[in-house]
Amino acid sequence: MPTAKSEFDDLHPCDFYEPDELLEADQMYTVYEIARLLQGIEPDAELDPETEDVLLDWAIPWIIGNADDLVVATPRSDDEPGYYGVAT
């Protein structure tokens, strides 16, 4: 159910990083690492599964929305995730 804006103490602009602001140009990242970076968390930080699921809810649309500025690498093995990086 929608909630009135007046119910919240603070409202902030919905501003996201550009890929070149978030990712190092010479590195590739998993969606899990990108999810952490979008929240200002170290890419290798341990998270509980519930928190990681919430972060992925933010990261996946960010990747899709920035697809033109990213490259994706084919996983090196069947049990490895894909990796994303800044398109150069």
Spans of at least 5 consecutive residues with low confidence? none
- Given the C-alpha coordinates, what overall shape results? globular
What share of the residues lie within helices?
25-40%
What is the helix/strand order?
HHHEE
The count of strands amounts to 2
Beta percentage is: 5-15%
Counting DSSP H or I runs of 4 or more residues, the number of helices is 3
Give descriptors for this structure:
single chain, 88 residues, alpha+beta
Task: Provide structural commentary.
This protein is α+β, with helices and mostly antiparallel strands and 88 residues long. It is 33% helix and 9% strand. The mean pLDDT is 94. Strands 1-2 form a two-stranded antiparallel ribbon.
